[in-house]
Amino acid sequence: MSIDKVSGVTFSSIDKIDGVRSTDIDKVSGTTASYALDDFSGAVAAYSLRQLSSTATTAISVENSSGTILDIGFVNGRLDVSALATHCGSNYGRVSKWWDQSGNDNHMEQSTAASRPRIVDTSGNIVTTTDNSIRALDFYGNSTARWLSDTFSSNNGDHFILSYVGEFRTVTSGQQIVSQWTSSASTQTFSANVLGASQKLRIAARYSTSSNHLGRADTSATVSADTEYVVVGYMSATPYEGDIDVNGDTTNTSTGFPSTGSLRSASAGITIGRRHDNGAAQYQGYLAEVIIWSAGTLPNRDSIMSTTKSITESHNGKNGYRHRQ
Q1: Which of 91, 118, 155, 258 is a plausible cystine mate for 213, CB 3.0–4.6 Å?
Q2: Strands 2-3, 31-33: parallel, antiparallel or unpaired by DSSP?
Q3: C-alpha closest to that of 315 among 134, 74, 80, 78
């Protein structure tokens, strides 16, 4: 049994109970607080600086300026910033691995030290977004391209949900935030983009018919730099539809879908931070969380949005992106 609400209020929206921060509470009246992946099951891959699963033990592996790599876990459901600060001291910390908390071992990694996203800057400060000061990975520190990659099947051929929490340094150039994309239509799977010229967000997926139809959903409104966004995107072949919602907007935004075919489900390279195959469309911003779901029955997208949004709005950098959910 786990806690969803206290006195009718969603647990993830509560800052304190009797003066104690909810993030420091493991149990209320003997009942354990729940985590995101325990509540929203069916994740293929899940990366975050908060603890998403009761069984997850490690968030990131961090290389310090001496070249030593240390696994950084959680304390009371939040990133262990004490261990991180001790490890990095007054210099930088670069992420060599963002651990998959889904239990599927789809860890995102970077073997080239100079291309690793930063979690600590060159002065020893833990990286945060500029909007709500949420702890995040910096994929464009010092104007340097940084990314993480792995290879796996991202969906079941019929549908998936992608959610992420991020902030853009710029929205005037085309960028791929999460990319399982190549130059060949026959091997494209999906991508989450900043479109650049239109300053809108898109989620797109390729449907594996002979004509390789493209499905896509764009935001109706533009997005801005230095603003934190919670994004929940969805692609489906049954029925043929898709959606992308931003910061609580749950209006359907399908902009074009085929009427035949299924999503490409073959195992393929996937990258956070740029286009996977050729390094184009570098993401210029921060990410605190990326989750992909593709179970037989998907979790409710509106619930994912409302829960994640309430978490990001409840805590600033002093407390961190650390709410139990």
Answers
A1: 258
A2: parallel
A3: 134
Provide the CATH number for the domain around residue 116.
2.60.120.200
Q: Distance (Å, rounded) from C-alpha 314 to C-alpha 301?
A: 20
Q: How many CA atoms lie within 13 A of 224 on its CB side?
A: 6
State the pTM of this model: 0.88
pLDDT tier, 311 (very low <50, low <70, confident <90, very high otherwise): confident
What confidence category does residue 6 fall into, taking pLDDT thresholds of 50, 70 and 90?
low
Q: What is the pLDDT of residues 187-213, one digit of tens each?
A: 899 999 999 889 999 999 998 765 668
Residue 325 lies in a domain: no
pLDDT, position 273: 98
Which residues, in sequence order, are CB contacts of 210 under 8 Å at separation 6+? none
Digit-coded pLDDT (tens) for 264-297:
999 999 999 999 999 999 999 999 999 999 999 9
Q: Which residues contact 7 (CB under 8 A, 6 or more apart)?
A: none
Task: List the beta bridge partners of residue 287.
Answer: 137, 166
Residue 14 domain-assigned (yes or no): no
Q: Of 245, 241, 184, which is closest to residue 212 (Cα–Cα)?
A: 184
Cα four-point dihedral sign 243, 230, 117, 280: positive
> Does 11 fall in a domain?
no
Residue 320 located in a structural domain: no
What pLDDT score was predicted for residue 260? Answer: 85
> What's the number of domains the chain is made of?
1
Distances (CA, A) of 34 to 53, 101, 302: 8, 15, 18
Q: Quick one: which of 85, 39, 29, 83 has its CA closest to 57?
A: 83
